[in-house]
Amino acid sequence: MSDIEKILELEPHGADAFVGESPSYEWGRIYGGLVIAQSLRAAMRTVDVEGHKVHSLHAYFILGGDPNEPVRYEVDRLRNGRSFSTRRVVARQSGGAILNLSCSFQRDEEGPDVSTSTFPSDVRPPEDSKRIEWGIGVDARLEHESTQPARHRIWIKFTGPLAEEEDDHFAALAYLSDSNP
Description:
Thiol Ester Dehydrase, Chain A, 6-stranded antiparallel beta sheet
């Protein structure tokens, strides 16, 4: 099991509820990407329909989380259909809700490619880029630092192999979604 898979682990804690832990971070709060990823994992564990994969996710940070306290993930099954399943997850600690996540799962269906793009031609390879601190189990390299906020190009990969399950890959990508580890 890789480092990222270890920190994304959840324990069942009653019907549609799970508990997750957080490593300590130098800034004294839980990394937001961890709470998003654990929330998504909790939602995925309640989708019983074969072949439904996450296709939409919205997360709203409410309060900063305390890494010294477990997080309880409470899942509401909003919809269970043949083509779609919808979930709401509230991440809670003793001070109240710290994150609200809404996500939708869809059965694989034929359709047009909606999102296509080309890889930039002026990108340096990762080994020629500056290593930056990202978090446990992640190798991140700053390829291009822009003067415009939120316009940096970064190479990111996990330092260990991920499990073969697609849901583990979706959760790992969710972990990377918050750019402030």
